[in-house]
């Protein structure tokens, strides 16, 4: 499909090389299998993680410890190409790099960084991020998971987390818990006694992604397990801001894949003696999807450049997540209708992306919460409670 606005022409040569390398990886390693993985609800993480590590996309925006140390736009472009494959693939990379590696890199001790970051960058160790709980999703301030120092100086962690991407395949969990000093982050090796992570089944979205509950039953951790560099909810919220940046780029890829599929289909499917792409109603759907895609891409690129300039704010990230995920879901739904009956099978990518985007609309701040963030930005009045 033609890039009418020539947006990628404004990328640097290195950024275009990253685009092409990740796109080739997805075409080679993911697209031939993704329909089956989705149907069978599997994500072959142990195979893909080292390959993604070699590709250089795990923690690619972090410096040192075997990470690529690339700029934000490069990270965004990689997320876009990964999610053109599947939101589950991009979720894996986002959780690994932005939610598990980032807090260790930003707030961890030298020992925590040395122990985990090189292995995570290589894809030899998998991480997860535990914030959401069964009773506390949009409002994590009320979390019940708690850690107490016992007389020996160890931490004792108790509680439960829910909807945790990579939970049951992770080697290490970054877990946020209440302490006497407020919310703290803990680096928890998943083979610690008392830690269990059953997988959540029967999902109709992000099926090619592992989602789990985490349970902590008197999990004993050394004093050194706490992230020393941050206290309070700003710890997990700063990680989410990093990951949302990947989302607002990633969904552009999912939307592009849907529109490409709809354009292809509309020019070959004949009804009433002509291609359905020759009907004005179909062209209207395609044209508005093209507009939505271009606007989302421009938003992502602008926010990427602000991030590279060091001025990107969490509110701007909320704007991008809200706008781009809604646009992507709209494009996916229009594409699905253009494909008619074929739009509901896994022979085409559209319904898989459409169903995946329902999760993306909900996780890392629901569309309602990001709407309230923008409402507060405009009026100065917080309306969360
Ligand atoms: P709730 O907070 O109960 O919200 C339910 C509805 O009420 C939503 O529509 C919401 O917008 C609305 N609502 C809530 N409060 C308000 C309000 N003040 N005003 C208006 N409307 C409101 N979490 C992690 O910690 N780590 C992960 O790796 C992770 N991965 C995930 C993977 C998947 C596939 C999914 C589905 C979720 C994942 N999550 C993860 C959890 C996700 O972030 C939460 O689902 C999300 O924050 C919403 O929380 P909730 O599901 O409890 O919904």
Q: Which stretches of 5+ consecutive residues score pLDDT under 50?
A: none
Q: Order of strands across the widest beta sheet?
A: 2-3-7-6
User: How far do the termini sit from each other?
Assistant: 45 Å
Q: How much helix is in the residues? A: 40-55%
Radius of gyration: 21 Å
Mind explaining what this structure looks like?
It comes from Streptosporangium amethystogenes subsp. fukuiense. The model has no long low-confidence stretch (mean pLDDT about 100). It is built from eleven helices and nine strands. About 50% of the residues are buried. Helix 5 (about 85-105) packs antiparallel against helix 7 (about 235-270). With about 375 residues, the protein is of the alpha+beta class. It is globular, with a radius of gyration of 21 Å. The longest helix has about 35 residues, at about 235-270. The strands form three sheets. It has a four-stranded antiparallel beta sheet with strand order 2-3-7-6, with helices on one face. A three-stranded mixed beta sheet has the order 1-4-5, with helices on one face. Strands 8-9 form a two-stranded antiparallel ribbon. Strand 4 (about 170-180) and strand 5 (about 180-190) form a beta hairpin. Bound molecules: flavin-adenine dinucleotide. The site of flavin-adenine dinucleotide has 21 residues, from strand 1, strand 3, helix 10 and helix 11.
């Amino acid at each position: 499909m033609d890039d009418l606005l020539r947006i990628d022409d404004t990328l640097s040569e290195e950024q275009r090389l990253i685009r092409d390398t990740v796109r080739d990886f997805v075409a080679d390693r993911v697209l031939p299998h993704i329909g089956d993985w989705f149907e069978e609800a599997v994500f072959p993480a142990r195979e893909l993680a080292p390959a993604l590590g070699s590709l250089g996309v795990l923690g690619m925006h972090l410096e040192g410890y075997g990470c690529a140390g690339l700029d934000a736009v490069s990270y965004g472009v990689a997320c876009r190409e990964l999610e053109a494959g599947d939101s589950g693939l991009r979720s894996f990379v986002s959780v690994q790099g932005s939610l598990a590696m980032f807090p260790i890199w930003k707030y961890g001790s030298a020992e925590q960084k040395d122990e985990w970051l090189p292995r995570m960058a290589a894809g030899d160790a998998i991480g997860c991020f535990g914030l959401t709980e069964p009773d506390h999703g949009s409002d994590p301030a009320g979390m019940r998971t708690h850690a107490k120092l016992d007389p020996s100086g160890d931490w004792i962690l108790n509680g439960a987390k829910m909807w945790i991407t990579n939970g049951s395949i992770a080697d290490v969990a970054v877990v946020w818990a209440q302490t006497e000093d407020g919310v703290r982050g803990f680096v928890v090796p998943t083979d610690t006694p008392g830690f269990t992570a059953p997988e959540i089944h029967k999902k109709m979205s992000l099926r090619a992604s592992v989602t789990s509950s985490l349970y902590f039953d008197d999990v004993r951790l050394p004093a050194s397990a706490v992230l020393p560099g941050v206290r309070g909810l700003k710890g997990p919220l700063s990680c989410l801001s990093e990951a949302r940046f990947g989302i607002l780029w990633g969904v552009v890829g999912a939307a592009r894949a849907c529109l490409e599929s709809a354009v292809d289909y509309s020019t070959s499917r004949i009804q009433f003696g002509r291609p359905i792409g020759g009907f004005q109603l179909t062209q209207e759907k395609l044209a508005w999807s093209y507009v939505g895609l271009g606007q989302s891409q421009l938003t992502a690129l602008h926010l990427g450049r602000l991030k590279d300039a060091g001025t990107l704010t969490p509110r701007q990230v909320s704007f991008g997540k809200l706008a781009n995920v809604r646009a992507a879901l709209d494009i996916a739904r229009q594409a699905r209708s253009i494909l008619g009956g074929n739009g509901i099978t896994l022979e085409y990518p559209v319904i898989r992306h459409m169903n995946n985007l329902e999760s993306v609309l909900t996780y890392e701040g629901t569309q309602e919460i990001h709407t309230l963030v923008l409402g507060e930005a405009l009026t100065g009045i917080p309306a969360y409670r």
